[in-house]
């Protein structure tokens, strides 16, 4: 089912995104890299996500009528969690509506980033002395006497003589710098720490501004820069970089202006590799069993990245030849497939990756159609199944700076968990499976137009659908809501069994009782009747669906327990749980706790959303060499726990398969 796309522009960040009609404004904000306060879980009760709609405001809902005065509503004040898009919008997001204590971090990962002293690509205007009889220096010597030593590819060196003379020995040198490499060395986090501790004690994020092309004291500019291009003097002062989040299920790309760090646009699409397997294990198996599998998967993801690049450039009017850099964050398998690297060893113990430190490659080696001499930075990885997306998330949230223990949980096709305890970082990946993306659920689907995204029982069954269209399936957030509601109303037992008609509570409302239906040898819950669906098919939660949810949520909760045990911490000592990933932002925390995805012992107020932290970290690396150096140190110093080899995980997983009791 297709849906009309509407443009939403956010101020003051400058971010913009195209979303289907009927999408909630909070969801559009997440896609644009903005995470908003929603302590009430998007119920419209707290009023923390208030925004000012300058153009295209929808009629106020009952919650907005109760929260705002008539004058405020007339001026365009709305609650983002209540506002559904019916028109293109221009929205101002106050700093107070950005996520709590993390709003400063999120401001540096959404919209405009601070100008940095060390963008990876810099333009330097130059004017050289003309050759003369008394000055017969070689062209390259003359050039380097002004800009310093450069690495220059032969093809550009062949063009340089004519370019210099055609341009009157004036122009703009486009220089590509590299960050310091070697994560094992002590590269200068402020403050000393014992080498064996693996701790990271302070940030390396750039905050000061300086002019393009400068190399201040303490800069991370390293080695001889590469000459990427030599342009006429009238060329634009700006260059552009791409940031990619290469997910197992979804690909997201943002176009960023350098040196300002301003995000110009963001686009996303389903990862086409899903047609070859909905998780990384199936894709690794494809490579192991078919000689052409690796090339096929590589071509699928690169072609998709080029499509996203073309969309971004069409939307912004930017020439692809002005894009000189791209950064890629993703899990270990996805980054290997992106680079065309052999993933067979990731499918067998001890799950060894080809690389750990980040890779700086020529874009044309990958087939990415940016500037012909453009470069690609691929994030470092922590281990076989804890990859660059986790490194990027740590980089964006800076959880290692917080004195209290914190958890960063990215819930997706692969579930990654990071525990920070006074600078110590411990990370693991869980085989959560693709249930939360709608896969392996009988009528599951990803979060797209037509997907039921919220379910509430209030004597009757209420649900909302993405795009405000008739429902055709269930996405992950609705599955969590539905499981939680079934548990509350004792329609679902803690062992995961859906109750039969004769097991239902006597006081259960008839509306709910009538939805318990027999499916041959098991029972199911009827959410949408056939006549309510455009395809004429009922939407149900079946017993096998519940089993998939148990596997996915149990793996996450068991992984959290193992990391806490390793650090000698109890769940009550965790100051905050940060939920990352696009899916995490649509979860109602109280429902995730009720069905056991998140620990029920922690106060709901301690659970916060941080948006697409993987893309946020990729954006930081797209604008700052120092951020890349920090990423390398994070990857090196994070302790990797292989849960499949930890006997405590098996026991914790078996226990976590049971839904929590009331």
Explain how this protein is built.
The protein is an alpha/beta fold and 662 residues long. Helices cover 28% and strands 23% of the residues. The protein contains 18 helices and 26 strands.
Question: What is the secondary structure topology, with strand pairs?
Answer:
Layout: E1 5-11, E2 16-20, H1 25-31, E3 50-55, H2 62-67, H3 70-75, E4 77-79, E5 89-92, H4 103-107, E6 121-127, H5 139-147, H6 154-166, E7 170-178, E8 222-231, E9 239-246, E10 250-258, E11 263-270, H7 280-289, H8 293-316, E12 323-330, H9 332-339, E13 359-362, H10 363-366, E14 375-378, H11 388-397, E15 406-410, E16 415-421, E17 424-430, E18 451-457, E19 461-465, E20 473-474, H12 476-488, H13 510-513, E21 516-519, E22 522-528, E23 539-541, H14 543-567, E24 576-580, H15 589-594, E25 607-609, H16 613-623, H17 625-637, E26 639-640, H18 647-656
Parallel strand pairs: 1-5, 9-12, 12-14, 15-24, 17-26, 18-20, 24-25
Antiparallel strand pairs: 1-2, 3-4, 3-5, 6-7, 7-8, 9-10, 10-11, 13-14, 15-16, 16-17, 18-19, 21-22, 22-23
Helix pairs in contact: 11-16, 11-17, 14-18, 16-17
